[in-house]
Design brief:
CATH class of the largest domain: Alpha Beta
Largest sheet: 4 strands, parallel
CATH topology of the largest domain: Rossmann fold
Number of strands: 8
Number of helices: 11
Strand content: 15-25%
CATH architecture of the largest domain: 3-Layer(aba) Sandwich
Helix content: 25-40%
Distance between the termini: 40 Å
Radius of gyration: 18 Å
Number of domains: 2
């Protein structure tokens, strides 16, 4: 019998041939897991579409980014789940209450995506400011993929707007394109050239954050940059 890290109820893990050969012990009950909706939308950014598949290979968000940037800094984004009310509550508890056990329920799935799609990529994460790390006690993106070798090559520019992304309007987020909040770790600059990078973060909303991080890496000589997140906002 296991205890669900989300609802705290006891549950029996279903025994299957697969479960006999995997070291992963299920930590979420079936009732809670059913509320996590897999992303199957836009091929480039995984934006969910309630009305069926997108006619084009990319959604309106991706098209607007190409028009805004001329060349999109981000090759593609993969997100595990739709950012519905259930997942919003989970990630809020994880980030703001320090419930790292909730973050770890996504680790196995993130690792699987990395192995399947980004096996030859250097893995990095979106950095927090020192103020945010002090408030939370950890970087949520780092904790999500604990155990994977991370090259932390990005830093936050001191003095940039450090309000929580959830407190900013869409316009304020998009305006980050004109004021990149990221810089490079000095010791990593010589390592970046010619490498493919995967940026890990918790939520993809408008895509501004990962694109500005990607821009920083590309300008340093990275070959290609993609992102992987737990959640994809339904409305960017």
């Amino acid at each position: 019998m296991s205890n669900c890290v989300v609802c705290q109820r006891n549950f029996f893990q279903e025994i299957s041939v697969h479960s006999l050969f995997t070291p992963k012990k299920e930590s979420v009950c079936e009732a809670c897991r059913k509320q996590l909706i897999h992303c199957n939308g836009c091929k480039r950014c995984r934006k969910p579409n309630r009305f069926g598949p997108f006619i084009e290979q990319e959604c309106g968000d991706c098209i607007r980014w190409r028009k805004l940037l001329a060349v999109d800094y981000l090759d593609k984004n993969i997100s595990l789940y739709e950012y519905n009310d259930f997942l919003k509550t989970l990630l809020s508890h994880y980030k703001y209450r320090g419930d790292v056990a909730i973050g770890h329920i996504f680790t196995f799935s993130l690792q699987a995506v990395i192995c399947d799609h980004f096996n030859d990529y250097v893995v990095t994460t979106i950095p927090l400011s020192e103020k945010r790390v002090e408030e939370r006690g950890f970087n949520q993106a780092d904790e999500l993929i604990k155990g994977i070798g991370i090259h932390q090559c990005l830093t936050r520019n001191i003095g940039k707007d450090d309000r929580k992304q959830s407190k900013k309007t869409r316009y304020e987020r998009i305006s980050l394109v004109k004021q990149n909040p990221f810089n490079l770790v000095e010791e990593e600059k010589s390592f970046i050239k010619g490498k493919k990078y995967l940026i890990i973060d918790d939520i993809y909303t408008t895509g501004v954050t990962v694109r500005m991080a990607a821009k920083t890496l590309l300008e340093a000589g990275a070959e290609r940059v993609s992102s992987l997140t737990v959640a994809r906002a339904i409305k960017g």
